[in-house]
Amino acid sequence: MGSLILHGRRLCEFQRLRNLRFAVNPFQNATAFSSSSSWSARDGQKDHTFTVSYLVDSLGFTTKLAQSISRKVSFEDKRSPDSVLDLLKSHGFTDSQISDVITVYPQLLVADAEKSLAPKLQFLQSRGASTSELAEIVSTVPKILGKKGGNTISRYYDFVKEVIE
After folding, report:
1. How far apart are alpha carbons 109 and 19 in whole angstroms?
2. Which of 10, 20, 95, 110 could serve as a FRET partner for 136 with CA atoms 20 to 30 Å apart?
3. What are phi and psi of 148, to 5 degrees?
4. Contact, 132 vs 107, CB < 8 A?
C-alpha cells in the first residue's frame, strides 16, 4: 500500500510538471539554466498573454474562452497560427467552422501548415470529399487532422463521413 501512495504522489508530481510550459533555446549556454525561475515564469506569462490576445483578436473568442484554450496551447508569435488559419480558409472553411475547429482542437494552431496539415487535407480531398464536405467533416471532428498515416486517416474519414450522412 505504501508503494501505491508513493506512486500516486509521483504521478501527481509528474502531472503538475507536465503542465509547465517553457521554451529552451538549444543555443543558450549552460549559465542560462542557472538563472532564476522567474525568467521562465515571465516568459511563459508573455506567451500566455500573446496567445490569449491572438485568439481574441484573430478568431473573435471571448477572453474567458481564449484563456481556457491558452492552457492547452501557447505560441510566441503569429506565424504558425496565421499559416494554419490561412490554409483552412483556402480549403473553404468558414470563420465559424475555423472557430469550432480551434475550440475543440487548439493544437492545430502550432502544427506545421505546409508539412503536416496541407498533405492531410489534400489526401482527404483525394478520397472524394468536396470542399464543403471536407470543411464539414473536419469541423465536426477536428482531431482527424491529428491522425498519422494514410490508413488511419482514411478509416477515420470513412467512419465520420458515414456517421454524418
Report:
1. 18
2. 110
3. -110, 145
4. no
What pTM does this model have? 0.68
Question: What integer pLDDT is reported at residue 47 of this predicted model?
Answer: 64
Please write down the HEC assignment for all residues of 128-161.
CCCHHHHHHHHHHCHHHHHCCCHHHHHHHHHHHH
With 90 as the cut, is the pLDDT of residue 6 above it?
no
Distance CA 40, CA 21 (A): 9
Q: What does the domain layout of the chain look like in residue ranges?
A: 45-78, 79-164
- At 11 the pLDDT is 39
Q: Is the sign of the CA dihedral 11, 75, 157, 161 positive or negative?
A: positive
Residues 123-160: b if buried by 16+ CB within 10 A, e if exposed: ebeeeebeeebbbbbbbbbbebbebeeeeebeebbeeb
Q: Do residues 21 and 47 touch, judged by C-beta distance below 8 A?
A: yes
- Per the model's pLDDT, the better-predicted residue between 17 and 162 turns out to be 162
Amino acid at 132: S
Q: Which three cell numbers stand for residue 116?
A: 503536416
